[in-house]
Protein 1
Amino acid sequence: MIIKKILVDEIIDFLGKDIIKVMGLHEGIYIDNLSDVDRVNETTLDWVNPTKANKQEIVKASKARVMLVDETVEYVDGKILIVVKNPKMALAQVGNHFFVNHPKPSIHPTAIIDPDATIGKDVYVGAYTVIGKATIGDNCFIDSNVKIYDDVQMGKGCYIKSGAILGGAGFGYERDKDGNRFRFPQIGSLIMGDDVEVGANTCIDRGALSDTVIGDHTKINNLCHIAHNNKIGRNVVIAGCVNVSGGNIIDDNVWIAPNSSLRGYVHIGENAFVGMGAVVVKDIPAGETWIGNPAHKLEKK
Amino acid sequence: MIIKKILVDEIIDFLGKDIIKVMGLHEGIYIDNLSDVDRVNETTLDWVNPTKANKQEIVKASKARVMLVDETVEYVDGKILIVVKNPKMALAQVGNHFFVNHPKPSIHPTAIIDPDATIGKDVYVGAYTVIGKATIGDNCFIDSNVKIYDDVQMGKGCYIKSGAILGGAGFGYERDKDGNRFRFPQIGSLIMGDDVEVGANTCIDRGALSDTVIGDHTKINNLCHIAHNNKIGRNVVIAGCVNVSGGNIIDDNVWIAPNSSLRGYVHIGENAFVGMGAVVVKDIPAGETWIGNPAHKLEKK
Amino acid sequence: MIIKKILVDEIIDFLGKDIIKVMGLHEGIYIDNLSDVDRVNETTLDWVNPTKANKQEIVKASKARVMLVDETVEYVDGKILIVVKNPKMALAQVGNHFFVNHPKPSIHPTAIIDPDATIGKDVYVGAYTVIGKATIGDNCFIDSNVKIYDDVQMGKGCYIKSGAILGGAGFGYERDKDGNRFRFPQIGSLIMGDDVEVGANTCIDRGALSDTVIGDHTKINNLCHIAHNNKIGRNVVIAGCVNVSGGNIIDDNVWIAPNSSLRGYVHIGENAFVGMGAVVVKDIPAGETWIGNPAHKLEKK
């Protein structure tokens, strides 16, 4: 975390038209940290979740002078209340802008990039990362020790964490005359949209004869295995340690909870939720929540 | 994928005595791609699965001019049908030979190999791979960012994907007088047969006092953990995200589906199938299929 | 394994006051290996588990000349019996001291360490490891291809295996106005105690607004995902492929078996045991064993 004093005026300038109003005198007042509830102090930028019942009490009880709140909160003496529609989103924006150390775009001298790769503008590539004849969009952040194979197409603004392996050969075999397994050719590509995130040590294989596709804004956590030929939509969330076998269709806005497994060639409908540890062997209709081993529909009570 | 035109004559030469017959005039005719069913075009090398009921209709419906088929398929006007016993295997062979870019055997200058290691002929070692005093057989392909520890013995023709870690110290402790865990020595080896494949970011630990053993032609997918002292047979398939705890015996031709777990010291009999997400806490007799948490026998109906 | 002859006198000197007595003439007698039961030979240092019923028979049947035993074992002609309170612990100590090849403390020339990092005394850092502005305690062993981010604080004597990724940004988002996920700032730290072990390719994320904490002597196996904001106690064991989502409290001496999953914000009480493949969605009281999907208490019979 970057440690520095940020004036309330700087926050107001930064949030701009997202601010509905500011209550309280803030000239010369600063914050210098974001904290979870246990460690809030006078100079924390605190916030109140709009879904809470006792928002007014939370504001009064907070040790923080400056808080992000929604329109339903009334002024409390001595506080500076920055009123926005979505306080958590405003906190996230302030945090990312003022407290996160974003490495400047640059290619580390130890990164090995194929001369036939196409690297967009303002891309960061970390130490010991190896990139083949791939296409990397503008503003991508690719951390250290990443491997990206030939033919991978990555959109703009993607965020690839250390140890991720993108576009490797999938796991497919045909038995030869002696009964031994012979590798089926893995000659498709991996095509990733914009603003995709890939977690640390996660592996996404290229397609066999078709492509593996990951839609815009999809976020994949650490240590996931995404096999060949998956077609994954937009704004999908795949949590840690998930196994997605080959050839599934995962529609937009699906949420796949940690350590679950998708058998190949299932279809997960839009907005469906796959529970933690679920073992999915059937299609899941849109909007449904499935849990268990084997996974079954969770009936809402 | 390599993009090039391949004459039917070249395919006939390559498949050689695997070809039963060729039907249709093929002088000057070429193919230039392999594709899944959605993207087949006139110059795709297409194929028909012998298990399908409507093979004749599939041949007629395909946009492709050239197809690999079995002996039961009759000639269809305008096509070139290459008749073989196993069309999918022939497709795999053609694909691997003509369309896959196989890096030439070479040791990347950034690979760090112990001077006392024994490296066979025609081995590929990728960038930033670190190899200790290990023995690597002929024709092995070891991708980038791999770690191979001292004492590992790897047979011929193995295929090790990026990020794999082979022969690391296992996870075993004895409590000391203060109740804290003290590392039990991990001084066995990891002994791998020929034609073994290890997936990306998969970890296979060395034995503690005995060895970890992986048989010929066994294929392990991405993100698997194979703990110390496992004895794994030939032609075993271990899919993605599988946890194999220490000291199991896994006989030949076992299939272990994704994200399943084997408790230590169980025996999985030949040709057994462990279902996706199965939590195996007992021996599995040969030929049986076990699924669930805890795993139980699936009775065939 | 180091191959060398070790005189019984050397072992006696090394174990020192842990030895209760030595029975049998041992002048000039040596051992040269540790082995599992199948491969014990005359020069193995063998041992007898104090919990066995037939200890006397085990001593007689062993091919080994020299054995570590507890006080209840009587002398057997021709043997050299080294009597200690905990024979397995003595074996572990001898094995680690005489047979394990411990690399000398050193920083590999290819390691990239931020000039503002604080590295303790007698630290080993392997090839291609990248360390940010972190603090690393004395006597830590950090293997090759490891990534340690800024702000990580690591105690003394930690053991970090290859491919581990420590202190990366966690997985947290807030939806923006367009419904797309926007990264919530991940500006906490990762604070690790002394003698912590982190397995190969395991990922431990930094906190979001608070810290991720790992207590002294805690051991984590390969391919685990430890998300942001977890507070993990002392002497906790986390086996392979475990998913620990964000914000849990795991008390001292908890054992988490392989491939289990902890939903965020649960509390696992001291000495609890989480079974293999368990899907934990509730708090677990101290001392209880929970198994299954979803996890439930295992009633002791």
Note: The helical segments of chain A are 8-15, 55-61, 87-99.
Protein 2
Amino acid sequence: MSELKNDRFLKALLRQPVDRTPVWMMRQAGRYLPEYRASRKDAGSFMDLCMNPDFACEVTLQPLDRYPELDAAILFSDILTIPDAMGLGLYFETGEGPRFKKIVRTAQDVADLPVVNTPRDLDYVLKAVSTIRRELNGRVPLIGFSGSPWTLATYMVEGGSSKDFRFVKAMMYDTPEVMHALLDKLAQSVTGYLNEQIKAGAQAVQIFDTWGGALSHNAYMEFSLRYMQQIVSGLIREHEGRKIPVILFTKGGGQWLEAMADTGADALGLDWSTDIGAARRRVGDMVALQGNMDPSVLYASPARIREEVKTILDGFGRGNGHVFNLGHGIHQFVDPENAKAFLQAIAELSPAYHD
Amino acid sequence: MSELKNDRFLKALLRQPVDRTPVWMMRQAGRYLPEYRASRKDAGSFMDLCMNPDFACEVTLQPLDRYPELDAAILFSDILTIPDAMGLGLYFETGEGPRFKKIVRTAQDVADLPVVNTPRDLDYVLKAVSTIRRELNGRVPLIGFSGSPWTLATYMVEGGSSKDFRFVKAMMYDTPEVMHALLDKLAQSVTGYLNEQIKAGAQAVQIFDTWGGALSHNAYMEFSLRYMQQIVSGLIREHEGRKIPVILFTKGGGQWLEAMADTGADALGLDWSTDIGAARRRVGDMVALQGNMDPSVLYASPARIREEVKTILDGFGRGNGHVFNLGHGIHQFVDPENAKAFLQAIAELSPAYHD
């Protein structure tokens, strides 16, 4: 593997000194980019694309080519590859989001689910990782990722997206042993999946707990965080002579940062509802913090975006352990020039916060 | 006005001793009740219903007739009556939620908006309040309500519901002076609206800040909480010889409870993501707490619902200042028998937490 030319993202995750605050954007390879829309145009369904390592590589690199300020690449894939590999039949309906052909509702449904064997069942993801890693040629590190067990379970039990999580919460409250059996299979699958991504070349990994914030305090601890902890404990933490940092991101999890830091993760992703200065005071001696500008700020003017960047840099303050990011994925209607203004503001303003 | 026979809800909001924890449910007059669906069947559009004081009275009383455990009634109305009265033309598209014929996007749009004169523009709401109050005949107190200025503004600028708040956040970040002008008109309108509801017979009022949780910490303070504070400062706080308690509810506002308590509100509504014991330790010497069971627990079995009720009673602990509620509105697919199990569990279990 070629030498890493820009390691400020990995260093910041480990709270080591850097020359400026590193930055990447959740969903940076996506529909807001005209080059992405052009690539997708004749390329088949969304899942066909995810399963095509050359396409995944092409779109992963697009934002890096456009924005030299980016300090990391993230694997282009979907969070629902694991339930798909378990045999549920993932597909996408226009305007409806992800759907599954098979739905998991009973103890028998859960018993019938296999634990995913990544090299056999998700080989296309590993090929994408190694292809991207080769094509990156050491420019920036590559982030691997997975959905959290709870987040994956919500889609598997509801059959798709949900507003009230009617069926998955009924399962959780009425038959917690069935829910735990499902989450344990998912945690085993995710652990193997992330470890194989690391072996294939991912240099950091992020666990996306998109729906942990839909849980009560107690339910979050028992049904979401516990399984992320299990995953963190099972991950390869060093590879190719480097530490592999682990980032936990629970959207709506601002009240639970201390417990998240206790998992042994290296960094926590923050959504924009949390004050990053307050978060640093709470857990900054245990973990790095990634975030946390409201992605909707990118609908404002470049001058205003720059002010918001400064507010967050001031909020975190001087010193180590900050990776700049949006608090959630970049929205599809954002002007790419505004994303550029965001990234340039970080590159220009952040050196003053480092020695 | 007839004497109030059950005042434990009002007492608990003022942190006075009660015999058991009072309870009501957000959206307790609603689609989960077969009698509500029957009443609505031939009654025209949703707005026609809201504008009909007799219908509003009929459906407000339905849950009280079914569930003698309920300790409060809440006015049946919509949170968007104020923007409708400002001339925006509220209507409901099936499956799409609320929409407006006129959308507010520019400084001129905001300048053109009137401040609502409630007796003239929203007389139908005041008639509903006085009708319900008369028909309640002192059984339980009546809660009046309004949406918060920020929450109303999101619908007015987006033209309806939104996922990313694209236009309203662009307005907020790019032209904060326009946003402030809009929010100030709304705060003046809401203050008058709630005061008129109080004069017509509402014995407590709640401000619903459904979308405050979509804001960053700083933006919440500047664009949502500030205007709720302005309203709280302008409310009639005593009427008919009784204190009129004010409840603030920001969904997703668990990180901001201290600042919410500083507004001078009597009580804070909690969604289910916040641990109610931790919330009491933070602000329980300043305000009462209302909440906070996950409404999706009502999809579980009666036995399980009872356990969750006990967990929340234990979480708050012994003593004054707790109103039991769901953390958000009751879902439409809940079995009314499960709502009954919820209410009975509170009536049966909660006396042990009071002297």
Note: The longest strand of chain B covers residues 142-147.
Protein 3
Amino acid sequence: MILELEVADVLEIFPDARKEGIVEAKRIRGISSLNRAVEGDLSFLGNPKYRSQVSGSEASIILLPEDYEGKPRKGQLFLRMKEPSLGLTKLCHTIEKNMTSDFPSGVHPTAFVEKSAKIDSETSIGPFCYIGQNVEIKAGTIIESHCHVGQDSFLGKNCRLYPGVKILSSCELMDRVVLNSGIIIGSEGFGFEQVESAHRKIPHLGKVIVENDVEIGANTCIDRARFEETRIGEGTKIDNLVQIGHNVQIGKGCLIVAQVGIAGSVQIEDFVVIGGQAGFSGHITVGKGAKIAGQAGITKDVEPGAFLKGNPAMPVQLAHRISILQRKLPELFNRFAQNAGNK
Amino acid sequence: MILELEVADVLEIFPDARKEGIVEAKRIRGISSLNRAVEGDLSFLGNPKYRSQVSGSEASIILLPEDYEGKPRKGQLFLRMKEPSLGLTKLCHTIEKNMTSDFPSGVHPTAFVEKSAKIDSETSIGPFCYIGQNVEIKAGTIIESHCHVGQDSFLGKNCRLYPGVKILSSCELMDRVVLNSGIIIGSEGFGFEQVESAHRKIPHLGKVIVENDVEIGANTCIDRARFEETRIGEGTKIDNLVQIGHNVQIGKGCLIVAQVGIAGSVQIEDFVVIGGQAGFSGHITVGKGAKIAGQAGITKDVEPGAFLKGNPAMPVQLAHRISILQRKLPELFNRFAQNAGNK
Amino acid sequence: MILELEVADVLEIFPDARKEGIVEAKRIRGISSLNRAVEGDLSFLGNPKYRSQVSGSEASIILLPEDYEGKPRKGQLFLRMKEPSLGLTKLCHTIEKNMTSDFPSGVHPTAFVEKSAKIDSETSIGPFCYIGQNVEIKAGTIIESHCHVGQDSFLGKNCRLYPGVKILSSCELMDRVVLNSGIIIGSEGFGFEQVESAHRKIPHLGKVIVENDVEIGANTCIDRARFEETRIGEGTKIDNLVQIGHNVQIGKGCLIVAQVGIAGSVQIEDFVVIGGQAGFSGHITVGKGAKIAGQAGITKDVEPGAFLKGNPAMPVQLAHRISILQRKLPELFNRFAQNAGNK
């Protein structure tokens, strides 16, 4: 990343930081990890795992936790603060504002908006977007190229749709929802009934509601409900390539990592954290604050606060214990054979 | 879901239902699950798991199995029938017909159709669609926004392509095929040959054939064959984010749940059911009517009718037995250590 | 596959092949597998598994390894060569050149290119493409319909973007990169920080660099780095629906099969091979030439050359041993109970 930032601007962002050393450079040209930084870069110690890299780093400015003991090299400035990670985020938000190209308000000449759509004048509708009948879009929302917003859908304030998002009919985004490229909101649920040995589709007449401050990753799919709504709760963050089935209810503040699959009618309560590639059978409830390890297979209700792993899933400590013992199975079988022989 | 349906219309749909109770409302305003229904809603007992919720439900009309013993509350109507689920589907199809916006026949002014394409006058080609050279599309097919149909491809009657489907060159859909948003039909197969330590691509010159009544979920990918065809058999239903490799042959009436991965040249025979996130190695055959549990890893041929689970996969009953015994490993190791000590 | 190829043309491609038999047909109408070939087809023995099918094959020409002992039937020509698979690939490349429709140089009338973009005159920009500000695209690159190339991105020579690829801002493709349909390059990384019990997004200001000769499958997602770059090394091949997190560094010549998930900041060294649906925790290193079995869960650094399987992952031979012993657990528990009873 190449940027031009005055050292003075950086210092202004951290008025409470404890300074040590004198930076020689006048400008910061980039942000970089400790071991890759060169003169003119700003770096940071976020994860303690990388503590040993600080002393060798050539960064001109380093954000550090308050208890870091080392000294800056010549020409290097240490900024000690409570939480360097948050500090960095603060810095990045400042930079981001300067970097992001403006999305001018208005409808791109190549976009197509149905007459009955109500679009606030302070929205940006990008190239080749299609906005359907009776759609309503509130102020501050940015829709990039090749998006589709189906009829009767509603988008709140300050949402951001990256290129190629498809929101099908009758779905709702509340405020500040971020949808990465290729997301499908409102696809048909996977429900069929056996009629004379053929699978006959169950119509899905419901919708998807995505609450405030939800952010969703690229190419993730969320199916519409059968009658009511599939719902993603406030502040929940979902990664790329996740599958969320029809009628699923996800609570507030959950974190769902890439390639997770959640079957129909599952209830995920608030603040649940789900590792990548975990899978959930239909019609189960995952209690508040539960943690599910990556690749776990969850087929039954999960207690609030539980931490499960494996398939079939079990408490993480039992899973670790068993995986250690499994590695001893060859030895156990040998000794058992010996003992049996000794008798 | 908000709808306006006369009670009389509902009764007309179920002429053979056994009625008990008198509904007070004149109109049905929605369909809802038993525990969420309010006055004016229609509900149903499909899954016996929810039987206990019937007596507390405030729905105005409830579809029930014939053997349900309870009585309706005041102002509530019970409709008893052989299969309430099928009844509900019937009702939904009626509603769906009324709800779905018409897709007018013809080509949207923003779409681009190559001159050599033969498109029936009773098709609907949506905004920003691209239809390639020599494409043929039959009557009744609806193509929504941002779809691509590559040269020499063929689409049969009454197909439905949701927004953003990409059908690459020389592929074939037969009749009544439903493709959800973001599906890719005909991507390059993943085949490479080692030439002097580099991977050189094997050209994929074949195609994909999707037979009658197949329905496929959002963002699923189906690779084209090397020479001949990757084939999805009649009436098979595939969920979201599924990967189907080059040359795969899938039989009739299969159900394939989300995020399944099927490597190249696999043969799946008729009526196979595959749980979510299961994976298949290349060049194997899965026999007719087999069932594969979610997250299973299948690396060898599967006998017809088998029900496999786990990775490595094994008969489901053995898998259950082993997973129970695994949880007893800590105890077994303890007791073994004790016994050994006792000697 | 239907094609028209003179037998003489085929022979010209294999000047060094050892010929046996006399083909009667004048033209080759298709390429087909041994057991499906009919008269007029060319077939081949690539995988020794299919050796027994040669004698029954009705193909008119068969490419065979030098040590194949059988004799051609009447009217059939055997061409023996060192590596029939490579021979076939050579043939296919010839056919492909004849088959592929020309992509005419220039910008399709429905595409939209920002004025500041620098596009070589020998590129093909397809229908409904959007090319952003300051984008640079070099000679020989083909971009099919519905692609988005975000501002400040760079595409090298002879790249191929299939329909619906989204390359977001500031990303770089070097030369001869192939991106299948629906790929997202440069989506936001999944990184959040806890601020007063809410998840606050960490801005991702970096980019994605895709080196020479990389080929990527449909609907795969590659997140941009936080500051620097997510990098896919030269000649690496990635299959469909793969997730590659922010800051991941992938070396040269790797093979990554469908639905693999690689979390943020993972380093994959050169020539690593990863089976389908395997998953990687963040911040780990996978050594040069390592092999990872399908569905494996990798949570720790992997030694160069290791071959791991399972979750938790272990050397493949230990994994096989344990999975055999697991199947004997029921017997072991029985015998143990018996022994304990005998005392």
Note: The helical segments of chain B are 7-13, 84-99, 316-327, 329-342.
Protein 4
Amino acid sequence: MPELRQNLLTREWVIIAKERARRPEEFKSKKEKKELPEYKKECPFCPGNEKMTPYESFTIQEKKGWKVRVIPNKFPALASEGKRDRHIEGIHRFMSGVGIHEVIIESPLHNLTTALMPVEDVRNILVAYRERYLKILKDERIEMIIIFKNHGESAGTSLEHPHSQLIGTPLVPTMIRYRNEEAMRYFDDTGECVGCKIIKEELTARKRIVWESEYFVAFIPYGAYSPFHTWLFPRRHVSSFGSILDKELEDLASVLKTVLAKLYHGLDDPDFNYCIRSIPSDIGQMDYLHWYISIIPRLTRTAGFELGSGMFINTSVPEESAGFLREMNIPY
Amino acid sequence: MPELRQNLLTREWVIIAKERARRPEEFKSKKEKKELPEYKKECPFCPGNEKMTPYESFTIQEKKGWKVRVIPNKFPALASEGKRDRHIEGIHRFMSGVGIHEVIIESPLHNLTTALMPVEDVRNILVAYRERYLKILKDERIEMIIIFKNHGESAGTSLEHPHSQLIGTPLVPTMIRYRNEEAMRYFDDTGECVGCKIIKEELTARKRIVWESEYFVAFIPYGAYSPFHTWLFPRRHVSSFGSILDKELEDLASVLKTVLAKLYHGLDDPDFNYCIRSIPSDIGQMDYLHWYISIIPRLTRTAGFELGSGMFINTSVPEESAGFLREMNIPY
């Protein structure tokens, strides 16, 4: 019989379709493998083509050239110039679409991907994330910063060159408010941060752990929305990604690389998204909010039921997927 | 500059990416056109193959054979037999996956689609929806009934034979609770049903109307989440789809067919989902809840930003898309 599980963090229920569930290895990507070149003349993100992109807001430079470049998105979803203006006309509320939309070019190499990068390179990407996060936090127009990655077509990108993005929005999205409120209610009811509680339970149960390190724990949540949906939680209770310490950042680089490499080797380079779930800009350290990273392999499609109910049907069993990833050896 | 608009019904904000917006005709489906046969020997939904599917829970029969068949899903997301059991183990809450999962086979013809059906056939589908909705409402294990359609691969189906689905869940999904609460707050603040208010405003503005009839209004919402996202609202304030009257149902058949035909001819048979947004089973007629149908063409992909923020970036302008559909003539 299928099972319904509550995702404690969001309070949303998920259908774990046990009978329809596929074995972990059945989720292997079926996309055609393309051998990509290290350099592509026409790629705007490849070295030598810097003039094809807007000016840099941040760069990590080495003797041989840049390692990471952060640039404004050439086709931004939100405009960086302009005032944050709210308008009300009858029942309609609207505002100027100001914000920040940046692209983090993760490597000079066209064909590299996080899973195959030296840990040092992943660290550089995280340094760029933190740098831009802390800088944009000071922009008074910005209420929320979302850092995310789209890898592969099912994940919403057709650009091959490894990159991620940052969008700063001039308001706090409704979903973020709802989730923070649920975390606050959990804290009010139990006196504990729900994130801290979940980590503690996962480390005791040990059924869904994918990887752990000194400062981070990676696991598949009990109420995972979709196959191989994975969370990376800092052990230390801290609300904002911007507060990550150097030693934690160093450690996170290795954890992120390891988990993505397990997915890469285990499922043949599946398309995926990840995003950093941090707090709104105007919120400081809160006893009830815990930042984390959510990795979402795009192995299935949402359909009418998900749109109609907001609920997900997960056709995998979290414990099985976690076991598969835990045992997946990756070359170093 | 892009614009942020609030979707009044859900209180969620949407980025209308005006500069990145494509012209309505640019959203035309690029999928390869397949000529489908009227009958396919191996299709379990084609007449003559009734034995390949479970027993019917409802049929509309004519002299020549059945017009619509409702059957239990052979691979259900929720099991129809069994008790609704809740369990709490430590921090984990779970329950038995009981519920209803049915398939509505919409026509005996393998290659028909709602957009091309005689209105009479669409009426039969709606009759089946109402029939099953009212019947399942009496199942005490069921808290919410979602009726939905997946058309095409991007919408989550690979089955060609025209069909839709019904899932009855043993709990009320969190998203539904949130949305109903927002509607209640709107009512408490203004004394009006937000649905009634939106219809009134759309009929005055006339900028986003796609089609209107005696009992229904079809329009693209001011804060549409995605290109050609369309709402069909009954003019009469009524909370439950199950309360639809015969004359309204007759009228809805023609409106649904018309809107889907405009999409079919205007965008070359795009993949789409639709769902009926009704109320939880334990809620009766409420002054603040208004049922409706949401049609969501699957023309773009959600990526890391949407997953991270819960916000959508709409790369079309609702007024332009509505104008395009409004003026699209369809053969009758």
Note: The helical segments of chain B are 119-136, 174-190, 194-205, 246-267, 304-309, 318-327.
